[in-house]
């Protein structure tokens, strides 16, 4: 089954590469660190246009309305892995000799962007191998620096977990990662950035989560409060990514402290 999924994924990926190869020299790129952001025109990424509103860009199929701020994209992501020790390793006891295997780790359809207004952002992500709706969220920009979010997403508790595996470069998440992960679950959140661009640049997160994990709803028996304070001494926010393929003109440090408290039937989330 895994090999069959890999063949399907590889065929689709080849088709996408062919489409890119035929692209014109016009460009369309998005903010790589915010999958729910709007689309911005820039140089460097090829695209194919179909009329004035529909084109193929850096994240897949993209739509830009001429009569509103609607700015949406739809894309696919495939990730396979050959492993001589298959399975999720969370302790030393899990490291055993086993048959090697080729696994389709991720085959996802995702999309999002600005809906009707540039302050209303949506994002959704579905994973085919696990048959799971991973993300479904709505973010409202109340001001330039204050955001309200509702839905299901990766809560901002552990940077290592929030970082997408698609942005890792020959790096796996650590074994201790699971014990410091709240992960995807339903919730409501506020985030505020203060003193942007200064040495006191700080972002604060306050979230209330279901405590039930991915796909489960709120109930009277659980609920988690999460707080996170992130200081950016250089006045710039460090992107959520475990890789950096560009050269920065100066260091971009980030220091954060986070806590979570409440009631949940689970000892960890994955």
List the defining traits of the structure above.
270 residues, 13-stranded antiparallel beta sheet, two-stranded antiparallel sheet, 42% strand, disordered N terminus
Short description:
The protein is mostly beta strands and 270 residues long. It has two helices and 15 strands. It has a 13-stranded antiparallel beta sheet. It has a two-stranded antiparallel sheet with strand order 2-3.
Gap between N and C termini: 23 Å
**Stretches with pLDDT under 50, minimum 5 residues:** 1-44
Largest β-sheet summary: 13 strands, antiparallel
Strand order of the largest sheet: 1-4-5-6-7-8-9-10-11-12-13-14-15
Sequence of secondary-structure elements: HEEEEEEEEEEEHEEEE
Shape: globular
Number of separate domains: 2
Indicate the structural class. mainly beta
Radius of gyration: 20 Å
Residue share in β-strands: 35-45%
Number of strands: 15
**Amount of helix:** under 10%
Describe the structure.
The structure is a single chain. With 270 residues, this protein is mainly beta. It folds into 2 domains: 1-129, no CATH class; 142-270, no CATH class. The protein has 2 helices and 15 strands. Strands 1-4-5-6-7-8-9-10-11-12-13-14-15 form a 13-stranded antiparallel β-sheet. Strand 12 (184-194) and strand 13 (202-209) form a beta hairpin. The two termini are 23 Å apart. Mean pLDDT is 80; it is low at 1-44.
């Amino acid at each position: 089954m895994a090999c069959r999924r890999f063949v399907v994924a590889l065929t689709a990926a080849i088709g996408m590469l062919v489409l890119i190869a035929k692209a014109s020299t016009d460009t369309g790129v998005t903010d790589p660190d915010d999958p729910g952001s709007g689309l911005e025109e820039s140089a460097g990424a090829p695209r194919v246009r179909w009329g004035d509103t529909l084109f193929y860009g850096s994240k897949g199929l993209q739509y830009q309305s001429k009569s509103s701020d609607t700015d949406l994209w739809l894309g696919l992501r495939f990730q396979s892995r050959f492993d001589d020790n298959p399975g999720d390793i969370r302790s030393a006891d899990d490291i055993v000799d086993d048959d090697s295997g080729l696994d389709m780790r991720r085959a996802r359809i995702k999309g999002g962007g600005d809906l009707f207004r540039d302050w209303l952002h949506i994002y959704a992500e579905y994973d085919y191998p696990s048959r799971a709706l991973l993300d479904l969220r709505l973010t409202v920009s109340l001001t330039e620096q204050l955001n309200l979010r509702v839905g299901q997403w990766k809560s901002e508790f552990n940077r290592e977990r929030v970082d997408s595996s698609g942005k890792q470069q020959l790096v796996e998440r650590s074994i201790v990662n699971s014990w410091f992960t709240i992960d995807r679950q339903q919730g409501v959140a506020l985030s505020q950035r203060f003193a942007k661009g200064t040495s006191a640049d700080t972002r604060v997160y306050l979230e209330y989560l279901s405590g039930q994990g991915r796909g489960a709803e709120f109930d009277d028996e659980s609920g988690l409060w999460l707080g996170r304070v992130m200081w950016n001494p250089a006045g710039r926010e460090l992107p959520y990514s475990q890789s950096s393929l560009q050269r920065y003109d100066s260091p971009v440090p980030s220091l954060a402290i986070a806590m979570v408290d409440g009631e949940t039937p689970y000892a960890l989330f994955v």
